[in-house]
Amino acid sequence: MSLAELSVAVLLPCYNEEKTIAEVVGRFRQALPNARILVYDNNSRDLTALRARAAGAIVVREPRQGKGNVVRRMFADVDADIYVMADGDGTYAPEDAPLLVNTLITEHADMVVGTRRGIASDAGRAGHAFGNRLFNWLYNRLFGPDFTDIFSGYRAFTRRFVKSFPAVSGGFEIETEMSVHASLLKLPVCEVPLDYGRRPEGSASKLSTFRDGARILMMFLMLMKETQPFRFFASIASGFFAAGVGLMVPVFIEYFTTGLVLKMPTWVLAMSLVMLSMLMMVAGVVLDSVSRGRVEHKRMAYLTIPALRGETRKFERLDRAMVA
User: Fold this and answer.
1) Closest CA to 161 of 308, 292, 35
2) What Å distances lie between residue 85 and 114, 165, 168, 276, 302, CA to CA?
3) pTM of the prediction?
């Protein structure tokens, strides 16, 4: 299967990237000459849209602010066999796009992530570097060791992945949601180490270390609740149970010493916490069954989408040869 047999779309979400977008579009046109290049302008207040259009890109405006909203719109609008997603700030090299696409094809993967070399030690600011290390470690503990750079914005996808991905996030946590989707359904994925560039002079990062870090942490908790409800509610139940038993101990000591329960409010609170922990455990058990059913439905929806057209033709030829 050759790249010429497949339709490729390059998707570039942008917000105030007038300094870099024209060069990025031009370099992608050279790297993938047969690809459609689409720039989704997210309420830029500068000349991003004009310069992208002048460079030969198809420009679409997405009024809902936030990268997650842009990605959701892109994935819904665009129909292709292979999708390449990058940022418009020039930090990802368009010349690496053929490597991502070829890896996607040769490895029969549904998503290839261009991991950023040295991002853990230098992400522009010390806070970003620490956050990358922390959240990647947390991801591996919660969802599995499939990825080493869950925040990379340079990715290649099959149509199967894009059209089965229920994008919920509104902001920069969208890459985390993509990674969890792949880990949850056990989709074939690959990582390719790539160099990560710097923004040009005068171009500012849209990331906020504390605000976006808090949003990503909340996304981790939400995804854990949705995908691993037993583990999530069991953790809360353990806290309530430990607090309840801790309050019970002095009441029991007093009872066995004097034969009286003088701290009745403490006893009531302790029993309430223990009962609440039991309710949490029951909720976790019930929701775990619901979560497993949802995963099965997502998997079936994923399987209803055909594989790459080139792959389909190749397997059809193999089937005919075997029959003959």
Assistant:
1) 308
2) 10, 14, 18, 45, 20
3) 0.82
